[in-house]
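Ticket 4471: requesting a sanity check on a complex prediction with FE2/S2 (inorganic) cluster. Repro inputs:
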Amino acid sequence: MSVILRRNLQVPQLLKQLSYSSSAKSSGDATATVKTVPKNLLEDKQTANLQKENGAIFDKRPFKLHLDKDKTYSWCLCGKSKSQPLCDGMHKNEFLKIKLRPIRFKVEKTGDYWLCNCKQTTHRPFCDGTHKQPEIQAAVK
Ligand code: FES
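Returned structure tokens:
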């Protein structure tokens, strides 16, 4: 089942529960560890924020991928790639009439990152916990 939602979903409070090996920081209190969503180093240079629509939900969970800080990646926004969470060029298929384009991104440090597979994140291409919203969990079986 393929469902497209708009970007104005609220980012859930569960964002703090995400774990990123490259950005995890400890405050000294084991129960108060604060996690942050990594930053796309190409966010200002590419199209990450120019496309208002979100793609089709591919999965209701993020996918952990090992990324190299020296490489540029393309994250699938349309949700139709067969190489999720990365783009395989499926958006170019003229019969599918897909207007969305992949999000080019780079990471600050080499390491493991949780990439969004629900395609509804507000921090493209990284998972920010948006997939935990009931609308998304209900949309994917
Ligand atoms: S998979 Fe987590 S926000 Fe999309």
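Notes from triage: The mean pLDDT is 80. Leaving this open until the requester confirms.
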